[in-house]
Specification:
By secondary structure, the protein is of the alpha+beta class. It is built from 4 helices and 7 strands. The chain has a 4-stranded antiparallel beta sheet, with no helix packed on it. The chain has a 3-stranded antiparallel beta sheet with strand order 1-7-6, with no helix packed on it. The protein is extended and about 55 Å long.
Length: 131
């Protein structure tokens, strides 16, 4: 057995260890952030529901704050998206040229049993009853 055959797997294990330590340190930093905790206490999350969609549908979404959306200055923008089988095409009014994003970067998720869906706020009981 050559030394290269051993160092390859060991390098991969060392890299996974570094990634784990980084993720753990970042999680501890976020959990210990008093400003984030105060914001979360003052702004409770909304109840969400799944709305199932199909390839070929055009839907209105708010683009999530993923790295790809932030890099293109799209994060948080409300836009129409046409769902494809492999990706999503943004409405051309977003900017010049055709913009395609992965499903996850367009806020579209996949459930292997039920298909594609988006998350949207669930109607509150008061709103549903008309109060």
């Amino acid at each position: 057995m050559s030394i290269t055959a051993l160092t390859g797997p060991l390098d991969a294990i060392a890299k996974l260890g570094r990634e784990y330590r980084y993720a753990r340190n970042w999680a501890e930093t976020l959990l210990g952030d008093d400003e984030r905790t105060a914001y979360a206490d003052a702004n409770p999350g909304a109840v969400l529901r799944r709305r199932f969609v199909n390839p070929g549908d055009t839907i209105l979404v708010v683009l999530p704050h993923t790295d790809a959306c932030r890099k293109q200055h799209l994060a948080g923008r409300r836009t129409r998206v046409r769902i494809g089988r492999a990706d999503a095409e943004l409405d051309l009014t977003v900017g010049p040229g055709q913009v395609r994003l992965s499903h996850a970067d367009a806020g579209i998720y996949h459930d292997p049993a039920h298909g594609f869906y988006v998350l949207e706020p669930a109607a509150t009981e008061a709103a549903a009853s008309g109060d």
